[in-house]
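Exercise: predict the fold of this chain.
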Amino acid sequence: MMGKKPYQKTKTSFEKTEQASEPNMAGILELSDQEFKTTVINMPRALMDKGDSIQEHMDNVSKQMEILRKNEIEMLDIKKHHNRNKE
């Protein structure tokens, strides 16, 4: 069974226009300019989303580290008490 590709490139307006039989160069340049403007406008939002995602992952790692520290302390206490009972 063939899996779906994780990333499938969609054609830009430029590529779609380029496939037309007689492309209008001014139209292509205008679409490319609009796509550029859209990308520039959306870039900060994408970066903020990426930053939020990274922060969420860091928070999760911090919580897991705290749990591991608590478990380590508990295990050391159990080991200490076990060794005292042996003596």
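Check your answer against the key: The mean pLDDT is 78.
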